Amino acid sequence: MTQLVFRDDAYERSCDARIVAVRRSEASVAVELDATVFYPMSGGQAGDTGVLRANNIELRVTDTRKGEDSDRVLHLLAPDADPPAIGSPVIAELDWERRHRHMRMHTCMHLLCAVVAAPVTGGRIAKDKSHLDFDIDMAKLDKEAIEKRLNELIEGAHAATPRWIDSAELAANPQLVKTMSVAPPLGERRVRLLEIPGVDLQACGGTHVANTREIGRVQVVRIRSEGKRNKRVTVAFAP
Description:
CATH architecture of the largest domain: 2-Layer Sandwich
Strand content: 35-45%
Largest sheet: 7 strands, antiparallel
CATH topology of the largest domain: Threonyl-tRNA Synthetase, Chain A, domain 2
CATH class of the largest domain: Alpha Beta
Helix content: 10-25%
Number of domains: 2
Number of strands: 17
């Protein structure tokens, strides 16, 4: 089991760790650590990139994925990478600017959930733009109104705080799972929530900023139909 440092503090940029497993394939070398600040791709959010440092060696992490279960994280290196032996100490260090953009975007998607009152059927979070798909009548989506309300919530400087509940409480409150295509972030029979008081509360295991103002101004760049039950709203950082 990997100690998931990002679950407790998304602002940690690096951590000390030890290599506990190395798996090789034609596509990559996957390194598992006993602790990591790297968020693995899940819930629509891209996996982190960065480096593993050991002595004078710097190994580029090109992607991060979940291992056999949600509490194991695989740091993907180039297929010709030569990591240190199992048990060796390393420093895991994020590409911070990229991660921070993911944090800003992911928190913005929670605000979008609050602005568009409809079930979420899918989504994707990237460093430059992100989208959510809603099960809603296209005629109810007004681009200018959504953009205006999003920026009002961002400028409102609302706190965004993670907290945990047990699985029984989630079962009693199914409305806390808003994304139909993503399973809730379970961990040791607990569920992680992100709360933006008075704005949004839902199950989420991703990384977020601590205050909505940190997101910065955004724009709705496109609204289009992706099928009968999928109306896609795409948001980008304003220039």
